[in-house]
Design goal:
The chain is of the alpha+beta class. The chain has 18 helices and 20 strands. The strands form seven sheets. It has a six-stranded mixed β-sheet, with helices on one face. It has a four-stranded mixed β-sheet with strand order 1-2-6-5. Strands 3-4 form a two-stranded antiparallel ribbon. A hairpin with a 2-residue loop joins strand 7 and strand 8 (141-144). Helix 11 runs antiparallel to helix 13 and helix 11 (304-318) packs antiparallel against helix 14 (382-393). It is elongated and about 90 Å long.
């Protein structure tokens, strides 16, 4: 790393933070350096400056840091390398370019740049004890990791992810068949002629990675992916008691209303990932602007922004740490933004995610299940796709936050705030007038969304995907047809419904 006098002075003017640690060192390497090395490596990296004293009580940033220098910079550098290559730490992740000496005001400063460790070798720990020697970084400095945090880093180091693990004593009796059949209906629609469409449910799950047989032990059962995606709500809650899914709509609130719509586990739906995804996705995309655009003689109703939101939702699911204590997969809809939160920190440095081309899901089996029905198809390009869609629409800059203090990732997508008259009309027409009508309209819009995403779909398939009865779907179709939003094309046998 090319570090010079100006770089150090500029860094000090910004103050000690999550990526900077200053230590007074005269003739030897301070013992606390190794805790900081572990903390930086296990968080997002940072710089250690030896020979600079910090007065934490000083509020004037110009006076807070005093450049004292070290007595013998070369000796300290040699001692540092000798120790880091010993059994003091489990991994030396530094190269020769990561340690520099810089002269400032006639004294020598030792600069140590610690990169974020690769997810495959985390945690970086001290003294051969992974549970007692692992540290992470926050704004207050280095702190000792809890056993829960260490276990999370160990889980993340598994090359094949976690969701393919066998869950003993969980079998096909724990699968919600209605959910699985809704998925299979959409799978068949997206993959017409696929050989998996002809097999039974258990074989289908095996092919997807939702059910496995351990050849070594002969044990068989659902995988984490199989149970989480298609399981009965009670079975999911029993096995993953600390994991929750939550959707909150904060739009058009009146008075002391806390939210206008919510989907959480209340016993009225099967608490699995596929039902959460299929129920919430139409809600978060329903109000996105749809500018008029034609391709030839056909209107194109699916915008890049709609695709980006689907990508964001998919990413939140496939990167969730399903085993984290008190983990919440949460989607929020506000008047001016959408928020997607998932438990677990980013596995890759945030700059790599912005660049694209790299992706490592925590839940690769679930990722494949969603990809097979058309979601999250572009591996490693998801976030650049979102950035591009928002830039094209001039909707502001999406913000990806690695919230270290709560072990959570949040993606915030700004959306155009509607004008005052629109909001008043929304409140009058959609909220005050009749709440029941709101719910009916949401359901009809969900049917419309299914047709938009699946041109040519038949009413029976709409019923299977939505979980609504055929008479209910027929009523929705009648309203949408009368309003001129959809139409039936083709013969009675081969035709289907399209957005008009």
């Amino acid at each position: 790393m090319d570090t010079n006098k100006n770089t150090i002075i500029e860094t000090l003017l910004n103050g000690e933070c999550v990526t900077l640690e200053c230590k007074r060192a005269k003739s030897e390497v301070p013992k606390s350096v190794w805790e900081t090395y572990s903390a930086f490596a296990n968080t997002i990296g940072g710089m250690i400056l030896l020979g600079i004293e910090e007065n934490r009580k000083e509020t004037d940033i110009q006076k807070r840091f005093q450049i004292k220098g070290v007595d013998d910079a070369q000796k300290i550098v040699n001692d540092f390398w000798n120790t880091i290559n010993s059994d003091k730490v489990n991994e030396n992740i530094l190269s020769s370019n990561d340690v520099d000496t810089v002269e400032i005001n006639g004294v020598q400063i030792v600069c140590i740049h610690v990169p974020q460790a690769d997810w495959r070798i985390k945690p970086i720990y001290l003294n051969g004890n992974v549970y007692k020697g692992t540290y992470r970084r926050n704004h207050e400095g280095d702190y000792h990791c809890t056993e829960r945090q260490v276990r999370a880093m160990i889980r993340d180091s598994f090359e094949d992810g976690n969701d393919g693990m066998l869950l003993e004593h969980y079998d096909m009796n724990d699968i919600d068949i209605d959910t699985l059949h809704r998925y299979r209906t959409l799978f068949q629609f997206r993959n017409d002629g696929h050989v998996w469409n002809e097999v039974d449910d258990k074989t289908f799950l095996k092919n997807l990675g939702g059910y496995i047989i351990d050849r070594a032990t002969g044990k068989e059962g659902l995988t984490m992916a199989g149970l989480m995606m298609f399981g009965k709500g009670l079975s999911v809650q029993e096995r993953f008691a600390n994991f929750r899914m939550d959707y909150l709509d904060f739009c058009n609130l009146i008075g002391d209303e806390r939210y206008s719509d919510r989907l959480t586990y209340d016993g009225r739906w099967e608490n699995n990932l596929y039902q959460f995804f299929s129920r919430v996705l139409p809600k978060v995309t329903a109000d996105l602007p749809r500018p008029f655009r034609m391709e030839g003689i056909q209107r194109v109703d699916d915008t890049p922004q709609h695709k980006a939101v689907r990508e964001a939702f998919t990413n939140a699911i496939i990167h969730s740490d399903l085993l984290m204590d008190a983990g919440i997969l949460r989607v929020e809809k506000h008047d001016d933004r959408l928020c997607f939160r998932n438990p677990g920190l980013l596995k890759l440095p945030i700059e790599m995610i912005y660049e694209g081309g790299n992706s490592k899901a925590r839940n690769p089996k679930i990722q494949n299940m969603l990809r097979m029905i058309g979601y999250g198809e572009n591996v490693g390009s998801g976030f650049p796709t979102i950035l591009s869609a928002w830039k094209d629409a001039h909707w502001g800059e999406p913000e990806l936050k690695n919230k270290i203090e709560v072990d959570e990732v949040e993606l915030v997508l700004p959306i155009p705030a509607r004008g005052g008259n629109d909001r008043v009309n929304d409140k009058i027409n959609d909220r005050i007038n009749d709440r029941i009508n709101d719910k009916i309209n949401d359901r009809i819009m969900a049917t419309y969304t299914i047709i938009r995403l699946n041109p040519g779909i038949k009413r029976k398939d709409i019923s299977n995907i939505s979980g609504k009865s055929l008479p209910t779907i027929d009523r929705h179709i009648d309203v949408l047809t009368e309003d001129g939003l959809i139409e039936y094309r083709g013969s009675r046998k081969t035709g289907g419904y399209y957005v008009k």
